[in-house]
Amino acid sequence: MKNMFAVLGVLGVSVFASAASAQGGGGMAGMNMEATKKVTQVGAHPDGWTLRTDNPADKPESVNFTTMGPGMHVESGPAAIYWNAANTASGAYTISVTLGVRSTPLHDAVGIIWGGSDLSGDKVSYGYFLVYGDGGFTVKHRSGPSSAMGKNPDVHTIVAKAMNPAIKAAPADGGSASNKLAVKVAADSVRFFVNDVQVAAVDAKNPMVPNSGIYGVRVNHNISVHIAGLAKQ
User: Fold this and answer.
1) pTM, whole model, 2 decimals?
2) What pLDDT was estimated at residue 146?
3) Topology at the third CATH level for domain 2-26+43-232
């Protein structure tokens, strides 16, 4: 165990005590106040893909999730997660994706989900690594469905929001920015990268950190984002 902490110390681990988030969708508490945009699905979802909105009252058709070129595109109304059940990972692996945000509120975020299970059910669970429009990031875990927006006791903070110069921030509220995100899962740690720079690491034995399951993406509310290169290595 002593050697474990020594390794994580070299990695620059940033571990925070798990605590219930004040914001179920991963945005900053008290900031997610603007009205959710009215968006309608146009055409079909990408083959094999499913989405789940945070608020059970929001229908899947309240976002526009489509295939675009070699990737996919989301124009969100409500916050949601997106996944293909065939995309699973276990053991040692890296999940990466490039998220080209075309429009985002500075206080809101997009990112990777990993370690997902029962994503359509009542025992939904997944980890998520988010980057914000203002250049911040956070790592969270969800272990239950939302019962009310902003009041979900089953969303836990693993790494508290922090700014990092590796993240390309949007130039203004509602501006655009592109970032490559990666989650690297190993036996001793789970590490988080933005544009190939490590921004955080946590102990793989943290009970709030999943290490196997479905991976995909998360898009918070009122964001337009292109999803490219989602892959497992």
Assistant:
1) 0.84
2) 63
3) Jelly Rolls (2.60.120)
